[in-house]
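Journal club side-thread
Mid-discussion, someone asked how the predicted structure for our own chain would compare to the paper's figures. Pasting it here so we can look after the session.
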Amino acid sequence: MDAFTDFGSSERAMEKERKERQEAARKKRAKERAAAERARAETLRLDEVNARRRAEEAVAREHEAAAMIEENRKTGGIRFCEVLRPTATSSNGDRITLPVSALETLTNLGAIDAGPMAFELCAMRGDTVVASTHAGVAEFVAGEGTVGIPPKTALSLTRENGPASISGMMIRVKYVRLGNHFKSFVRLQPRGHGFHKNGEEVVNIDIKTVLERELIGHTCITTGDWLHIRHEKVSYDLKVRSLGSYSTLGDAKQLESEEAIFLVNTDLEVDIMPSETAEAEAERAVEAAKAAEAEQERQVQRALDRIKRAEALHSALPSEPHDERAAAAPAAQAGGGGG
């Protein structure tokens, strides 16, 4: 009896041990499968990361190549860019003065032989560009590390802050190539009340003649520039709102938008917008008309809503009671008449 008991116990122990080994093997396989899944997931994640990085690098290379093409278009491949301290000059026009060292650099780069030079000027506060314009160069007589800025150019770089505020800035001077166009276009907007006296009487002014006189000595004009002109001892400020150049396609002329234009040997077409004050008044009139129209629509909608509510209340009222005696009387009368 004891032998059979021992045999049964041993068999159960072996079965238990077998099941435990099976369970351990199952857990091991499950763990290995989970580890393999994690490895595959991590591989996929890394592949996605690498693919995204390669795509971003490809886009960055494309942007860099496009920026290089645009830079070559703007500069003609001549790399001249310096950050200089501004000093005031009294010359008329937009032409700046640069140090002798700039002349040497530009000569070595071939800029002198490329024709009349133009420069992009950016007023900087730290690394921030506050304003920009374009100018020609008058002379190479400025002190080293400085750039001479005439009043008209300073106005375009400081605008409402006034030319005196340029002393707290640095000027980034960059050589650029502006296209020569047989005909160019500028749209100007008078500041404030514009060509009015005391905001009322219109001043009769030949703007093209005045601009031709005022732009003597200017090499370039830039979108966003402020132009200061005088007429009959009165000063006016104009904003350059847009610029364009005409290109000839067969017999047709097409106007193309420009950031800046070269004023040398170009026929300049001028368009004058309403003044800032007139434009603001027109915008207020449009807004007032829109508000009045919206209010009228609201009033109409409120009236329609009142009609709908009245109709809903009327339909909710109980029907009038049926008066049997009133209905019977005509019937009785009809019967009596027949007898």
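Post-session note: The radius of gyration is 43 Å.
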